[in-house]
Every structure is written in structure tokens, then in C-alpha cells.
Design brief:
Layout: E1 7-11, H1 16-27, E2 31-36, H2 39-48, E3 53-57, H3 63-76, E4 80-85, H4 99-102, H5 104-129, E5 135-142, H6 153-176, E6 180-187, H7 205-217, E7 222-224, H8 227-237, H9 239-247
Helix pairs in contact: 1-7, 3-5, 5-6, 8-9
Length: 249
């Protein structure tokens, strides 16, 4: 997929992997629509790439704000041909000790950002993407969708659901809109605000962004990045070991 002249929507575009993708994509000649909660960070991104970045400041967990943004995108950006569902939230909660009940609002937001928002964006924007001869939906998932960890059941469940959604959506596109590629990019642990204080060796956001854009430019429908590829192979050969290794990650 050529990226020069394309308009690409990135959720979670204010920081981390999303911000690095915006930087790389503008360097490749694309126009980026960056969507995120941090208006100040989005303004800085737009100022760093004048004329190449449009920003939408909103909380993806707010359905009314998201619906309004989708309506605006449909009317103002008919040239949109790539959607990257990158935003993610992870909540650690002990369901037995009552911590999950106390954090129910955060858990609901986790589900809204990680799953409901990508579904809503695909529902609203796929008709726009399908008007183009070549288009793509990229859903960023996680190795934890394959082998979950006990501390964040909601996050693992939403990423597993997004993988299943991606496959089913790909079937629809294959039959009804073959010009739209649905890509599932399975990420390893990346050094972002979400993972601060968690885990050991982490991929840098700029490397993760470069690998994701490389996946977009390929002809694949599923790409395992970094250690997630090792996990995939392990789960095929010795799934019990994979589950044990990730259980307490």
C-alpha cells in the first residue's frame, strides 16, 4: 500500500505509538487525522507538522462525542482511506478482593475504548473507506489476546474480542469490499504510559510504530510484532507453557 497522499485516522494519536505513527506517516507524505484525549499534546503534534495533521480531541469512551466525531469525519473527510484503531486502556483489578467492583467505572471505560470504539469507528467509516480502490482497517491487538495475564482480565478479553471482530470483519470485506484490507497487528510489550512500571524488556514506541507501518504497507492480514511472534509459535507447539509464562506477567 502506497501512503503518499493518503488520509489516515489514528486513535490514541496524542502520545506513544500513535504519536510516533503520525510522525512517520507525515514523513511518508500522508495526511494524519490524530484522535485522542490530550488536546495540548494534539496541538503540539499539529504544530510540528503544519498542514499535515488534523486533530480530534475527545474521549473514545464517550459514545456521544465519538458519534459526533464519526459524523464529522464522514462529511469532512471523504478522502479517508485508512483507519488505525490504536488507542488502548489497561486496568489492573482483583475481582476476588473487591477491587474490580470499586474500579467498575474504569473497567467499563476500558471496554469502551478497547472494543466499543473500534467497532463504532468501523461501522461509521467503512462505507467511506470502501469508496476507495485501496483502503485498510488496522486493529492493534496484543499478545495478551492469545495468552492472558491474571492481573488485567478486562484488557485481555477486549483485545481477544478485537481479534475475533477483525477476522469476522475481514470476511465481510473479502465478500463485499475486497478493496478494503482488515489487518490485525499483534503487539508485544511496548514502553508507553499504559505500561509504565509493568513488565521487563519493552519495545520502544518508535520501533513499534515503524513495524506497524511496515505491516500496513505489506499485503498481510495478520502481523505478529517482536516477541508476540515467539508467543504465537509457542502457543502452537506448547500452549500450556505459553499460558504459564504469561499468567503472572
Amino acid at each position: 500500500m502506497e501512503l503518499v497522499g493518503r488520509t489516515v485516522l489514528i486513535t490514541g494519536g496524542a502520545r506513544g505509538i500513535g504519536r510516533e505513527m503520525a510522525r512517520l506517516l507525515t514523513g511518508l507524505g500522508a495526511h494524519v487525522i490524530a484522535m485522542g484525549r490530550d488536546g495540548a499534546q494534539l496541538d503540539q503534534l499539529a504544530a510540528a507538522h503544519p498542514g499535515q495533521v488534523t486533530t480530534y480531541s475527545l474521549d473514545l469512551a464517550d459514545p456521544q462525542a465519538l458519534d459526533s466525531a464519526i459524523a464529522g469525519l464522514r462529511s469532512s473527510h471523504p478522502e479517508l482511506s485508512v483507519l488505525i484503531n490504536n488507542a488502548g486502556v489497561q486496568v489492573s483489578a482483583d475481582f476476588i478482593a473487591g477491587e474490580a467492583h470499586a474500579s467498575l467505572a474504569a473497567l467499563r471505560r476500558e471496554i469502551a475504548v478497547n472494543l466499543q470504539a473500534p467497532v463504532a469507528l468501523c461501522a461509521g467509516l467503512l462505507p467511506v473507506l470502501a469508496r476507495h480502490p485501496h483502503a485498510a482497517v488496522v486493529n492493534v491487538t496484543s499478545g495478551l489476546a492469545i495468552a492472558p495475564k491474571k492481573s488485567a482480565p478486562g484488557y485481555c478479553a477486549t483485545k481477544a474480542a478485537l481479534r475475533t471482530f477483525s477476522r469476522a470483519l475481514r470476511y465481510q470485506c473479502e465478500d463485499e469490499a475486497p478493496q478494503v484490507r482488515v489487518l490485525d497487528v499483534v503487539m508485544p510489550l511496548v514502553a508507553t504510559d499504559m505500561t509504565r512500571g509493568r513488565g521487563g524488556a519493552k519495545m520502544t514506541p518508535d520501533e513499534a510504530a515503524a513495524r506497524l507501518i511496515g505491516a500496513l504497507r505489506s499485503d498481510k492480514s495478520e502481523v505478529f510484532v517482536g516477541r508476540s511472534l515467539v508467543l504465537r509459535r509457542l502457543m502452537r507447539l506448547v500452549p500450556g507453557l505459553g499460558y504459564r509464562l504469561l499468567r503472572d506477567a
